[in-house]
Amino acid sequence: MDNKKIPMEEYTRFERARLVGSRALQISMGAPFKVKLSEKDLKRIKYNPVEIAKMELEKGVIPIDIRRPITKSGSEEEVVKTE
Questions:
Q1: 31: Cβ–Cβ under 8 A, 6 or more apart, which residues?
Q2: Which residues have C-beta within 8 Å of that of residue 12, sequence separation ≥ 6?
Q3: Radius of gyration over alpha carbons of the chain, in Å?
Q4: Separation between Cα atoms, residue 30 and residue 49, nearest integer Å
Q5: Which domains does the chain have, with CATH numbers?
Q6: What's the rounded Cα separation, in Å, for the pair 59 and 57?
Q7: What is the pTM of this model?
């Protein structure tokens, strides 16, 4: 299968919403944070998993990939983190 890699900045708003929602669910169920947050930062955002997931998305450290079907033949392009 032919996978094209797309920079992370090109997520659609729907992909961003799905990423933040999925990651927030993981965090709320006890997954470790992928960003370093002080106790002061956590209190400021009131331990909100959605806000933590948004921070992870901004830093580009969410451990989830996006696959987009792009043709009728079934090939896909993959959005991956660019570092």
A1: 23
A2: none
A3: 15
A4: 10
A5: 3-79 (3.90.940.10)
A6: 5
A7: 0.77
